Amino acid sequence: MKKNFCVWVLLLATLSLTLSACNNGLSTTPPGQLNPGAMTADISGGSLFTSLYSTFANDNGTNYSISGTQDVGGEPADEITMYIPKSAVIPYTVTESDVSAELHYYDAVQGRDYAARLGQGSFTITITSTSPTVEGAFQGTLIFPGVADSVRVISNGGFNASF
């Protein structure tokens, strides 16, 4: 009985060391946290927006602009851009009711810029960190004006934008 117990302990210890020592080149970033330069979001209609390396932040003194370009090969790239007023208190949330806040989704295939801003659509952007990168989450209902029922819903959005 004691011998079997020792064999099991040895087997489990070996397996544990093997799994922790080798991650097969996968990211060690915890689930829910994006690597710097990344943005992801679910877009209505079943598409997933993924930008693993092409998300950048710009600080103009009073606002952040965050822009992510989708990683696609051989196709026009969709883009998500947001304009966010700065706050001294972190974390903070902005919505379409803030006159300087906007959320845009550019559908490259259709050539349409869906937007939410004061008086059009709705959105929520939460900033969770501003150093060394700008990190946060977002969701919204964006509208392409002039076309009836032309709406895109963005959910589960997250970004980690590099300066």
How do the helices and strands follow one another from N- to C-terminus?
A: HEEEEEEEEEEE
Which stretches are poorly predicted, pLDDT < 50 over at least 5 residues?
A: 4-31
Largest sheet: 6 strands, antiparallel
Question: Which percent range describes the beta-strand content?
Answer: over 45%
Main β-sheet, spatial strand arrangement: 2-1-11-10-9-6
Secondary structure category: mainly beta
Distance separating the two termini:
60 Å
Q: Please bin the fraction of helical residues.
A: 10-25%
Task: Evaluate the radius of gyration.
Answer: 21 Å
Number of strands: 11
What's the tally of helices?
Answer: 1
Q: What global shape is seen? A: globular
- What oligomeric state is this? single chain
Mean pLDDT metric:
83
Write the layout of secondary structure elements.
Blueprint: H1 2-21, E1 38-43, E2 47-51, E3 55-59, E4 63-69, E5 79-85, E6 92-95, E7 102-107, E8 112-116, E9 122-129, E10 134-143, E11 151-161
Antiparallel strand pairs: 1-2, 1-11, 3-4, 4-5, 5-7, 6-9, 7-8, 9-10, 10-11
